[in-house]
Recover the amino acids of this structure.
């Protein structure tokens, strides 16, 4: 059986660590709980080869990612739920962390908590690491009176969001590699291969077919104006980055994305899944509907949908349910609204929202895979046509030269 390094806290609140064999990480955690310990972490022992790989990766600039924040949230919920104080819980997490940045973060949070500030206020001072949704969620959890339960719900939400993000990244990896290799190949052909043929055709002093002349003309243009093209691209990137600070421009961009048939449904489902999971988690933690919506809306990334949600929540303040004003907005998926309406009628809105989020997460993953499965052959065919067209234009010119009378 594999060997795991574990860290846990005993009944006296003291940190303990050691090794334990188990089939899986979950099995080791179960064994620790059976021994009366509060598990903090259980990691599979790494071999020498992996250790050297970590040493290589450590050359990269250190940072805290989504997974680190999710692990921190889970550990904090476990310790607080076991009855330890927030200060002691942070101290234990900082003591077992092997990442200097995490230790530094814990020290700052601990100093703020010891100074009399709440956890949400302490997190608010670390806005570069914690999104406004995270901070507002913790604030709502503090108001509900059950911080441990809500932190566990938050960690589950973060895990699911991270898993969906990683799945989309993995799905996009092959198309990006394909585009990169193709652009590199085209660059080599344009910069090194075509100029040689251009010199050959010039020495032959023979008329060139229109296709060959066009390809050689494009090649010459790209080589002669390469710096200008790079400058234009750089200016375009800078312009877009500057416009991203303009709320009106961002709103118009999101509006155009919703009008794009291939992406509209996917964008709506992604945003609805995040909002539903956030709102369902908050409602399940005992937060009232209106405060929960004000927190959950931060999970919306599309500004058009967020604007419609704000309008719906303002109608909600005058009384009535959530489904009706969202339906009147005319931009949210009808299936989700029907599920919300059923949840309101049965008094299980929180569970129904979580169900909506689970369904849409699965549908987003499936739709992404389907879109990429269509995109990949289209890209391969398109790029093949471009490279094949270049080769054919050169071959036509060569064959035409061979047919000339000597």
């Amino acid at each position: 059986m594999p060997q795991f390094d574990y860290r846990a806290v005993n009944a006296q609140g003291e940190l303990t660590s050691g090794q334990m064999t188990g089939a899986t990480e979950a099995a080791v955690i179960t064994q620790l709980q059976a021994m009366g310990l509060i598990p903090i972490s259980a990691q599979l022992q790494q071999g020498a080869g992996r250790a050297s790989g970590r040493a290589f990766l450590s050359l990269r600039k250190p940072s805290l990612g989504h997974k680190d924040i999710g692990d921190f949230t889970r550990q904090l919920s476990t310790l607080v739920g076991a009855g330890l104080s927030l200060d002691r819980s942070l101290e234990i997490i900082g003591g077992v962390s092997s990442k200097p940045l995490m230790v530094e973060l814990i020290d700052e949070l601990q100093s703020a908590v010891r100074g009399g500030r709440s956890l949400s206020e302490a997190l608010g001072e670390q806005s570069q690491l914690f999104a406004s949704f995270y901070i507002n969620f913790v604030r709502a959890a503090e108001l509900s009176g059950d911080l441990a339960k809500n932190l566990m719900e938050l960690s589950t939400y973060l895990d699911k969001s991270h898993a969906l993000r990683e799945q989309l990244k993995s799905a996009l990896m092959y198309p990006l590699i394909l585009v990169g290799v193709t652009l590199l190949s085209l660059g080599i052909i344009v910069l090194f291969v075509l100029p040689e043929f251009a010199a050959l055709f010039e020495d032959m002093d023979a008329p060139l077919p229109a296709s060959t002349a066009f390809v050689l003309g494009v090649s010459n243009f790209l080589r002669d104006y390469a710096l200008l093209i790079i400058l234009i691209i750089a200016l375009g990137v800078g312009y877009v980055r500057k416009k991203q600070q303009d709320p009106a421009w961002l709103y118009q961009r999101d509006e155009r994305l919703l009008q794009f048939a291939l992406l509209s449904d996917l964008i709506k489902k992604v945003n609805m899944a995040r909002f539903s999971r956030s709102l369902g988690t908050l409602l399940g933690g005992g937060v009232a509907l209106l405060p929960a919506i004000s927190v959950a809306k931060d999970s919306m990334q599309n500004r058009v949908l967020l604007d419609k949600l704000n309008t719906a929540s303002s109608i909600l303040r005058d009384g009535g349910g959530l489904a009706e004003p969202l339906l009147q907005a005319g931009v949210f998926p009808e299936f989700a609204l029907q599920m919300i309406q059923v949840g309101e009628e049965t008094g299980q809105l929180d569970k129904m929202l979580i169900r909506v989020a689970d369904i849409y997460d699965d549908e987003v993953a499936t739709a992404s895979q389907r879109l990429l499965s269509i995109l990949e052959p289209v890209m391969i065919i398109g790029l093949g046509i471009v490279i094949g067209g270049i080769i054919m234009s050169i071959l036509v010119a060569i064959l035409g030269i061979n047919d000339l009378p000597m």
Remarks:
- The longest helix spans residues 147-204.
- The two ends are 80 Å apart (CA to CA).
- The CA atoms of residues 208 and 397 lie 6 Å apart.
- Confidence is low (pLDDT under 50) at residues 47-61.
